[in-house]
């Protein structure tokens, strides 16, 4: 077998995610009254990027065979924080951005410490930290409000050279500066190994603890980037519980659509980005097909249900029944 | 290493028999309840009044019914994230059925529970036969249930008032002074204990939680057991929703949102392993009471919502660090 086949096999999930997204986006654009104009692309990108950042954050944790149910709350907390401190002259704004990102990393690191050194189960530990982060967000913004440096916000949500949505550029930068270095580093490999088989990784002397810790911390960073972008779009901060838990839930869906295994060790954040875009496009599609908004949640649910059921076709290839129970 | 474990054994043998058999996690949970009551009684002696305690048990019974259902699923090593909207569905469908002709009030409660069981079967089918991770299938079911309810109500909360039978079940009194909701919780608890300790289904649940392969090889139809377990969870979630609708005298959208995380937390604080296969029902009862007391005390102290969330999260983390840790990887 030549080498590209291995590569293809490894990237199958990501390519599936890309295919699902392209198909849905093509249907969406074909039915959009305006077609693919720069404006339509910009709106779609801006909405998709929020999901994409949270989905990337979720991927990092899921790869280690964990789950981060606080990711939406970190997103909300950093949104509220940014609406206080990302304001004013360029220098304070820059410091504010750094502080927001650092706050996200601290949240992620706390999750990591509890899961790795506290030896708590990720599901319950992040449920609890999620409550704390939401409480902090509510302390910062008991009522929606605040502001943000509008020049920066407009620059990052506008268009580069009149065509390219700059939010997509920012997302690509996050992939290049955060995801790829992590994926290629020793710690990234350790995170994958820990998710694939923690016992085997431990026996082989892989630094699983540091790898997992890095994954949780970077997940916090990516969620904070999402929170920053939310502030740039809305110009305000709001501690909305429903929004936080919604982002958490859809991040899990996006991760699965993007071909990342919830059992850990398989998949890539790039796939999750496509998964997030696909999930986002479902909502937009219902809009162009002029579906009654009342039916929107139901149709989204049905689409999600079908999408996750497709994966079970792999059962048909199982030769030994015992392989059902892994 | 062996020295300390021998020490521990010798301490255990000196304890009275009923303490020796008890799970340390359950004892810790009950200890925490007593500690909470003691601390709150320093704040105000009203916390120890019979009225207050009965009121707390009544509020706890809604969470208790939901937690009992989710515990079955957690014992399997799965999770049920569809609780919020299955609860809401149960409540809304019970209220809807009540206004349906002469038979309405009679079938209201069973119909609500049946709707919950149907969603549970859907979850169970996805998990057991399609082998989709439970986290994702129950998530999708939650969205579908939400979608159905949004379509049904037309996007806003109609004043779906709860029928008298439902209200009576949640707030009435068969035994003077003892709210019916508590009796319902006791009855459900008795059924759960029977299910876990006296039936082959209960054994199979623990077995699958430990190793589904081993259970399958021992002749258990594991897929059917998993599907039934999810149906039980759905039915009990819906029943919890019906009770809640009776308590607040109407069914409203998103009424179940505040119940998912406390239910999971209650089960886990009661010493049930989230990986499945280990845990006792008594622990879940302790966890439910603990969480309800904590929420109530924080709100009586007039702590703002933000502070409540923070304290709530921190307390859960601290208690888990005390006794919910997984063994080290050595």
Features:
heterodimer, A: 326 residues, mainly alpha, ABC transporter involved in vitamin B12 uptake, BtuC, 2 strands, B: 330 residues, two-stranded antiparallel ribbon, two-stranded antiparallel sheet, 15 helices, 4 strands, 74% helix
Explained architecture:
The complex is a heterodimer of chains A (326) and B (330). Chain A has one domain (3-325): ABC transporter involved in vitamin B12 uptake, BtuC, CATH 1.10.3470. Chain A has 14 helices and 2 strands, in the order αααααααββααααααα. Chain A has helices spanning 3-10, 12-31, 38-63, 71-85, 90-116, 122-140, 150-157, 166-184, 186-196, 198-203, 208-234, 241-257, 269-288, 296-310, and strands spanning 159-160, 164-165. In chain A, strands 1-2 form a two-stranded antiparallel sheet. In chain A, a hairpin with a 3-residue loop joins strand 1 (159-160) and strand 2 (164-165). In chain A, helix 3 packs across helix 13 (269-288). The longest helix of chain A is centred in the N-terminal third of the chain and has 27 residues, at 90-116. The relative contact order of chain A is 0.19. In chain B, strand 2 and strand 3 form a beta hairpin. In chain B, 51% of the residues are buried. Chain B has helices at 2-14, 17-21, 24-43, 50-75, 83-98, 104-128, 134-153, 164-171, 180-198, 200-210, 212-217, 222-248, 260-269, 281-300, 305-323; strands at residues 160-161, 173-175, 178-179, 250-251. The model of chain B has no long low-confidence stretch (mean pLDDT 84). The longest helix of chain B has 27 residues, at 222-248. Chain B is built from 15 helices and 4 strands. The two termini of chain B are 14 Å apart. Chain B has 330 residues and is an all-alpha fold. At the A-B interface, helix 6, helix 10, helix 12 and helix 14 of A face helix 7, helix 11, helix 13 and helix 15 of B.
